[in-house]
Amino acid sequence: MSSPINISAPGKVSYSSLSVSPSATFHSPPASQGQSFMASNLAHRAAPKHLKPFNTEDIKILLLENVNQTGQDILKGQGYQVEFQKASLPEDQLIEKIRDVHVIGIRSKTKLTAKVLAEAKNLLVVGCFCIGTNQVDLDYAAKHGIAVFNSPFANSRSVAELVIAEIITLARQLGDRSNEMHRGTWNKVSNKCWEIRGKTLGIVGYGHIGSQLSVLAEAMGMVVIYYDVVTLMAIGSARQVPSLDDLLQQADFVTLHVPETPETKNMISAKQFEKMKSGAYLINASRGTVVDIPALIKASRAGKIAGAALDVFPNEPAGNGDYFNAELNTWGDDLRSLSNLILTPHIGGSTEEAQRAIGVEVADALVRYINQGITLGSVNLPEVNMRSLTLDEPNHARIIYIHRNVPGVLRKVNEILADHNVDKQISDSKGDIAYLMADVSAVKPEDIKDIRDNLDALSSRVLTRILY
């Protein structure tokens, strides 16, 4: 099985050749010579065989938006072809690039719409090196067998710390004082400058970021309330309130940590500003569409809002430069004219620690999926895991069959595999899509081709992959 064979299906690229993984290290306490021999033998038997059924240099990866070096290093270390670009691409250039790649890594600016994905004939997987995945048409990707992974945890602390910094900065009007000093003006005032101790923080969205923020805020003496669409256990002394209106009426500081969905579009608009305390503050580090910016401008000018911090905007530039202007967002000049307003360029998760962690988490997920078909952490396909094959299982193949979730599929798949020894098999579904993995022993290259051809002929097929 050492020589490659071409068993690819039309419209998708697949590769087959055998490669051996690095040996695993077996850790054990001091033992006798006999025990040491047994440990050594077990170490050999347990050593996983990484499934790389292709010439790794044939796997093409495109990384956009300055994906962290840690992620690049992991992918390059596998031998893949990795192309790196610092910025996102306009749609026409993105379509041209995506036609040839098997993997694409993006952050929040790149839009992988159905139109773009329809051109990605070889694409197996998308890595979102960020928390959100709203920039990807997840439904289209799933229906075409394209897995999508993200990093839901890695930058939570960075965002939470930024929000704490913004709460203090707004309460003390530090942004205005700093700007005045830069202009040469000394303006020492205490009017409407506050300590945050004892003030009420209202967190909208009590997920990974919201709950971490809750802990930090309580440690600084704040009273924490939160609103979420599901009932969640409070951390510390935080308290869940039954509605968004309840939160707005009680909070001195309102901070938003929700995804971009039709339900969250303009979640904070004129009616919500009216319900907030006079002199309250608003912070948005979630998605730019969550806040109605013209309504915020009006509430600020009327004195209803004492200050705001915005890290995200409805329209954001594709790269760094002098692009945040009225041409990008018509209300840009009016927004910049407000006092006690913090504007930052979507840097909530932009710390060295967060980006390194995201690079590792997403790149590792991509490698697991490419090499072994494991979907743990996928946001659009069923999460399926299977024990790795070992070095003692050299003539095995891993069958991966992504298919429409319709009756009778498993029976037909098992009929195709009936003449082979199926060592283990697992299947799960998510909505209209199902994901099946099966490890088959004692297979020959001609067996693999027959299995693939028969699976590809099924009407339920979305994508067939065979790894060995």
Automatic annotation (TrEMBL):
Reaction(s) catalysed (UniProt annotation): (R)-2-hydroxyglutarate + NAD(+) = 2-oxoglutarate + NADH + H(+); (2R)-3-phosphoglycerate + NAD(+) = 3-phosphooxypyruvate + NADH + H(+)
Signal peptide limits: none
Keyword Amino-acid biosynthesis: yes
Biological process according to GO: L-serine biosynthetic process
Parts of the chain that traverse the membrane: none
GO molecular-function term, one example from the UniProt record: 2-oxoglutarate reductase activity
Biological or metabolic pathway of the protein: Amino-acid biosynthesis; L-serine biosynthesis; L-serine from 3-phospho-D-glycerate: step 1/3
Enzyme Commission number(s) from the entry: 1.1.1.399, 1.1.1.95
InterPro entries xrefs: ACT-like_dom_sf, ACT_dom, D-2-hydroxyacid_DH, D-isomer_2_OHA_DH_cat_dom, D-isomer_DH_CS, D-isomer_DH_CS1, D-isomer_DH_NAD-bd, NAD(P)-bd_dom_sf
Keyword Oxidoreductase among record annotations: yes
Gene3D superfamilies membership: 3.30.70.260, NAD(P)-binding Rossmann-like Domain
Protein family according to the UniProt entry: Belongs to the D-isomer specific 2-hydroxyacid dehydrogenase family.
Function in brief: Catalyzes the reversible oxidation of 3-phospho-D-glycerate to 3-phosphonooxypyruvate, the first step of the phosphorylated L-serine biosynthesis pathway. Also catalyzes the reversible oxidation of 2-hydroxyglutarate to 2-oxoglutarate.
Alphabetized NCBIfam families for the sequence: PRK11790.1
Protein name: 2-oxoglutarate reductase
Organism: Rhypophila decipiens
